[in-house]
Design brief:
This protein is an alpha+beta fold. The longest helix is centred in the N-terminal third of the chain and has 11 residues. The chain is globular and about 35 Å long. The N and C termini lie far apart (about 35 Å). InterPro entries: YjhX_toxin. This is UPF0386 protein G5V65_06930. Belongs to the UPF0386 family. Pfam families: YjhX_toxin.
């Protein structure tokens, strides 16, 4: 399945423990989203368009009105990426 670089980036952040918080309009439609990393930083690459594509493909979901998290399908779809937090030092 083809996944854009932005979708990959968002799924990778979510797979590492991030979450997407959202606001709904009175009609129930999601109108604003903010993607947080596990460290609490905001991921600027996560747009409403990317969010809708991920939700439509069932790579993310919200349970009981909580923040959106990655699903098992989303974890499988994301390509393995090196963890940039480790600093890359060799022992």
């Amino acid at each position: 399945m083809n996944i854009s670089k932005l979708e990959q980036r968002v799924l990778h952040v979510l797979a590492q423990g991030g979450a997407i918080r959202f606001d709904r309009a009175p009609n129930g439609k999601v109108v604003e989203i903010t993607c947080f990393t596990r460290d609490g930083l905001v991921l600027a690459d996560c747009s409403l368009e990317v969010f809708e594509r991920l939700r439509k493909r069932r790579f993310i979901r919200s349970v009981g009105g909580a923040a959106y998290r990655v699903t098992r399908e989303g974890v499988v779809a994301v390509r393995a990426q090196p963890d940039n937090r480790t600093g890359g030092g060799h022992a």
